[in-house]
Structure formats: structure tokens, C-alpha cells
Amino acid sequence: MDPWLIWLIVAAVLVVVEIFTLTAALGMLGAAALVTAGLAAIGLPLPFQFLAFGVLAAASLLFVRPVALRHIGQPQAARFGTDALVGKPAKVLSEVTDADGRVRIDGEEWTARSYDETLVIAAGATVDVIEIRGATALVYPRD
């Protein structure tokens, strides 16, 4: 079997294992093996293939992986859709109980339920949106 094909198989196995582990290390090694497969395909001797793989693997693990991990760990920049409504204040339009109610959130009218099943929130009160379930806002009164 040709060396470039072996490197290609090693690269594929490393990338597949990376998909299941999400460590960002095996993906870097897979990329190094892929580049080494290309070098082997153009005829680089075997000792230089191992040297190239070692240098590429070390460089990617030392320099690329920390940058990738920093970008993976960043929180989501903006919330969209109903996620953006969580935490916003709302005005109670009709009494909110654990079974019924209406609130106005950012100018839109929503069905609402009390987050605490024992509370009854009077019309005109200001509440916080705790959660959105489907088209219903679960709300809790502000203190």
C-alpha cells in the first residue's frame, strides 16, 4: 500500500474520532496527517514524512489549538427569537394565574402563565419573563 494512502486513512480516522471527542487535538493531528499525505503523494521519502508530520502536529497543537479553544469557549453574542425575550419586563394586561393570562412584551401581546403556580398576578403589574414555552410566557412578578 502506498504511504500517501496510509496517511490519508490515518487522517480520516483521526478526524472521525475528533467528531466524537471534540477535543480539538485529534482534528489538528488529522490535518497534519492530511498534509503529510500530500507530501507523500509527491514523493517525499518516509523519514521526511515522519518529520513533516511531527513538525506540523506540534505546530498545530501549540499554536492553532489554543486559538480554536478560545473561540469555542466564547458565549453566544446575541440571543434571537423567543430566547431574546427571557429576562425582559412585561406588563400584565389581564390577570395571570397558573392557567390563564395576557402580557405585553416589547409591544407584543402574549399568553402568559404564572411561573409559580400558587401566584395570581393582577392586571397592571410589571413582571419578568422567566421562560417561553411555545407561545406562552412564564412570568414572575417584580419586587
Question: Please, could you describe this protein's structure?
Answer:
There is one protein chain. By secondary structure, the chain is of the alpha+beta class. It folds into two domains: 3-72, no CATH class; 81-141, Beta Barrel (OB fold (Dihydrolipoamide Acetyltransferase, E2P)), CATH 2.40.50.140. It has three helices and five strands. It has helices at residues 3-21, 25-41, 46-72, and strands at residues 89-94, 102-105, 108-114, 126-133, 136-141. A five-stranded mixed beta barrel has the order 1-2-3-5-4. The model has no long low-confidence stretch (mean pLDDT 92).
Basic shape:
rod-shaped
Strand order across the largest sheet: 1-2-3-5-4
Count structural domains: 2
Supply the helix-strand structural class: alpha+beta
Q: How much strand content do the residues show?
A: 15-25%
What do the pLDDT scores average to?
92
User: How many E-type strands?
Assistant: 5
What share of the residues lie within helices? 40-55%
Q: Report the sheet with the most strands, covering strand number, pairing sense and barrel closure.
A: 5 strands, mixed, barrel
Can I get a quick summary?
The chain has 143 residues and is α+β, with helices and mostly antiparallel strands.
